UniProtKB/TrEMBL annotation:
GO CC, one annotated term: cytosol
Molecular function terms, GO-annotated: diaminopimelate epimerase activity
Chain residues that bind substrate: N11, Q41, N59, G69, N70, N154, N187, E205, R206, G215, T216
Keyword Metal-binding: no
Class of the enzyme per the UniProt entry, highest EC level: isomerase
Protein name (database record): Diaminopimelate epimerase
Gene assigned in the entry: dapF
EC number: 5.1.1.7
Length: 269
């Protein structure tokens, strides 16, 4: 079985080629593989009857999830190289994604349409998704409140803050990750709008903690910012591990993410 260690803007993946060799790790095995390979997520490539590949995703805590933006770009790069095609299709539990090459070796993935219904996120009860009833800190003087929420195939809550570096994210993120309003948990973004085309973002990922970049988190932050008219529908997202260009296209309502991928090493077992 081939194994690739890759990263997308610093978000690290151990990718297992399960197209000819079965690979169904237990939660413990995922945790062990992620630790040994210093990966935020473990990925398996499986055969798919209708698409170029089926991508399974596990967070480093062992939980299987349905979407991962940066891994989609890494898998996109592998499959584009392998097949020689100029566009490949990736089926995930959440959606069918399309990946293609951009300028300067960057990879773009069409991440599909954001889901805005409270049941889609999902939330435990009906609420205005532009600012849900979540507070962190004292009730009368919260440190943070009313995150915007959206699904990019996985749940995201985004707090807009004036200085992202002023917050202790490892302390605050877990308070929201498993808040009762989110029955499936949530990824938690801390977004600072620098100007109408630039957002600084750090994300506490569900099941993985603070990572150097979260692709679906970047899409979610841009969608929430543009929906609130804080930014244009295209913006540069500055994450700890690199930059992503996110475009929420008006013509088809789909979100396009462009950014770097790196193959760190490949091996076989
Ligand atoms: N790093 C990813 C997101 C991975 C899954 C996420 N932690 C979840 O639980 O939904 C990305 O680049 O999108």
């Amino acid at each position: 079985m081939k194994i690739w260690k890759m990263n997308g803007a610093g978000n690290a993946f151990a990718i297992f080629d399960a197209r000819s060799v079965p690979f169904s790790p237990t939660e413990d095995q995922v945790r062990q593989l992620a630790e040994e390979m210093k990966a935020d997520q473990v990925i398996a490539l499986e055969r798919d009857a209708a698409r170029d590949v089926f991508m399974r995703i596990w967070n480093k805590d062992g939980g299987e999830v349905s979407a991962c933006g940066n891994a989609s770009r890494c898998v996109g790069r592998l499959l584009l190289d392998e097949t020689g095609k100029d566009r490949i299709t990736i089926q995930t539990e959440a959606d069918m994604l399309r990946a293609f090459r951009a300028e300067d070796g960057l990879i773009t993935v069409d991440m599909g349409s954001p889901l805005m219904g409270w049941e889609d996120i999902p939330l435990a009860e009906k609420m205005d998704v532009r600012g849900v009833d979540v507070k962190i800190g004292p009730m009368d003087n919260p440190i943070l409140s009313r995150p915007a929420v959206v699904s990019m195939g996985n749940p995201h809550a985004v707090f807009f803050v004036s200085d992202v570096d002023a917050y202790d994210i490892p302390a605050l993120g877990p308070l929201v990750e498993w808040h009762p309003l989110f029955p499936e948990g949530t990824n938690v973004g801390f977004a600072q709008v620098i100007d109408r085309q630039t957002i600084r973002l750090r994300v506490w990922e569900r099941g993985a903690g603070l990572t150097k970049a979260c692709g679906t988190g970047a899409c979610a932050a841009l969608v929430c910012a543009a929906r609130a008219k804080l930014t244009e529908r295209t913006a540069k997202l500055i994450l700890d591990g690199g930059e992503l260009l996110i475009e929420w296209r008006e013509s088809d309502d789909r979100v396009y993410m462009t950014g770097p991928v790196e193959l760190e090493f490949e091996t076989e077992i």
